[in-house]
Amino acid sequence: MMYNKKKVERLKQHYSKGTRICLDSMVNDPQPIPSGTMGTVLAVDDMGQLVMKWDNDRSLSLIPGEGRFHFIQQKMKPDCPLIGEDGNIFHLMGIASRTLKENGMAEEAKEMCSKITQSGSYDEALSVLGEYVNITSIDKEMDECEDYEQEPETGMNMTM
How far is residue 57 from each of residues 26, 37, 39, 41, 60, measured CA to CA in Å? Predict the structure, then answer.
């Protein structure tokens, strides 16, 4: 199959890693991904195909122009101070869940907790956390608070 390098570069810019899409239809495949299935772009290969990880655990690539799909509008991930916290995954999951709920994302919190409890390893569970929240440092929040500390008062120090 011939491909145009400029077209492939445009595709790589337009469909960056992590882009979420919903499949409308897939043609010319004996075992197509069902319409309505959502997935995440992993990469765009040198042939211009979208290398996909579908939410139904399939990994069939998508060829723009042959498959019809649309972008899924994603909510912004809230910042969540997990670095420096107790590393117990259930503790971290609780903090992330609370953060999501405080940002109006209760359904996402429930979905995240389900994925974490079904994960096969600590690393996989941490990866799931990172899909839902921006993992930040608790020190970052403390640093921001330091900007608001008052200067020591000058003058007489009265003690009794």
Answer: 17, 10, 9, 13, 10
The two tokens of residue 4 are 């145009």
Out of 4-8, 59-63, 136-140, least confident range: 136-140
- What is d(CA 89, CA 87) in angstroms, rounded to the nearest whole number? 6
Report residue 125 as tokens: 């569970």
34-85 pLDDT tens trace = 999 988 888 999 888 999 999 898 888 888 888 888 888 766 788 999 888 8
DSSP type of residue 55: T
Helices 89-102 and 122-132 meet at what angle, rounded to 10? 10
Nearest one of 146, 136, 38, 31 to 83, comparing CA atoms? 136
Contact partners, residue 37, CB within 8 Å, separation at least 6: 22, 23, 54, 55, 56
pLDDT of residue 89: 93
In this structure, the dihedral spanned by the alpha carbons of residues 11, 17, 19 and 24, taken in order and rounded to 10 degrees, is 60
Residue 74: what pLDDT?
Answer: 66
